[in-house]
Amino acid sequence: MGDIPTLQDGEIEKRVGSRALRRGWEYFQKGALRQLRRQGKTIHGLCRGTSFEPYRVRVLFNDAGVAEADCSCPIGQGGYCKHVAALLVAWREKPQAFRALEELENALDRCTRRELVEIIKKLLELHPEMEEAVCSWAPKVAADRSPPDAAAYRSQVKALLQQAGRVDPPEWERTAERLWAILEIAEAFASQRESENASVVYRAILEEMLAYEQTQEIFHWPLSRIVDACVEGLEKVLADRETAPDIRTGVLRILLSLLRRNLELFGSLREDVGEVFRRQTTPTEKSLLSQWIESLAGLADSQAIKRLWGGLLLELAGQEVDMDGFARICRTTGRHFDLVRRLVLWGRVEEALQEAQHLAEDELLQLADLLDAAGRSSQAEQLVEKRLADRPQGPLADWIARHRQTQEHKNRLVDLAEQIFRLEPSFEAFLQLRQAARSVGRWDPLRSELLAHLEQIGQWGLLARILLEEKELGRALTLLQTHPAEHLETWETEIAQMAEQLYPAEALEIYRRRVDRLVAQRTPHHYAEACRLLRKIRSLMKRSGTGQEWPAYLADFRARYQGIAALLEELAKAGL
User: Which of 75, 1, 90, 3 is nearest to 44 (CA)?
Assistant: First the structure.
């Protein structure tokens, strides 16, 4: 077949993968390919897939094999999909099915202007809904191009929907195909970066579909695909920050109408519209949307609908909203659990317990579990007991029974962990005991006892490590000042480093003592380490505003150790 090569399965698999090759064979065998043709070194075809529109597939060859390939399916960019595999299999297995055509550009170059016009007219006879698109693509001066007529598009959409409803069963598949042709006009505007014109078409389609008396049909396949595509297109309109404010506002209104209708019919919010609101709106637009949504929440005829609107309001507010604003949204839309959860996470437990009176029983149990996990088991139990009142049975009573059984088991684990720690104190045993004790609310009093125990038995190194891990800097410094240095030498430098910002004088004193002990070791290695610390002392003095004391300190240091030649040599190397 001319100079177009054929590829074996191994070569096709190398390009698209084994799974795509297998599926490509299936498509070929069931006759999913049509309109096969070859033009020069390129083969083309249409492949019926999961979409109601067949995918356009193209493969360009060179002497080595495939030079380029692409497919109009969602993953077809680059030509690594099953539809490309099907086309390559068809070319190898049935090359005679490919109709030889002249290169399109060459064929059109030979046509006169009149002939080109006739070709376009014949195409429009087959697809009259594409007339607007052809007009929009025609080369004109931008200033002379009239904007698309929203009323005309709405009229077309309305006529298509009404026509589908006149037959039994309705021809939704065919209607969706015709609506898709109108949608492609909007896509054409969008591809030319004419966001405002694209929005007119997208909005006209959505507005008329929402106005259709059998609205529920538009949320089911195949019409739902048109709705989804309109949402995607309108998101691109909003993503273009140069779109005029009034156009953007109109887009927000129609998307909110879609959201409201979906909520009325199915009791749920569309996630794709919510994502558009979150990602593509400015702070001012989010504020406007919040005003509209608050009004809709106020008109909601059920608590469930009001709570859904409240959830969207919280998402639009984001993490920047302060506690008062967050609480206002939660209270006005009945999202009390969101409020108590945030209060607990912010450590405002008493306020959370006060707000808990508004919670439903299942939410109350969730709050109790949250408090239990936060180490506030007694408050969790009191909360449930208060609501339990005179009802000895039910979920609340079951929770209390399970909780008490669990608490008894946890308390035994704490007692066991404490025994282990007291017998063989270690940092790992301390962490395990802390975790277990916090889960039953026993940690604070137990911690004081354990730290006192470590000091009593002389476990100063372990005590220092624990104080550092818990950021008890003041107590760690006191430990260094009141206990033998040889027991804390491992930790004194780390304590000093932590103290540099808040306690620079104490940190300097630790470093000075450390330098003197290093020099006392009388080895070159210790001299070099002492010089490193001296440079740190100099830097810390400058940062803490006592830099003027450095010359006197260094002079005194050199005078005290003037007889140690090796140390003086290290000082010279270090520029000291």
Answer: 90
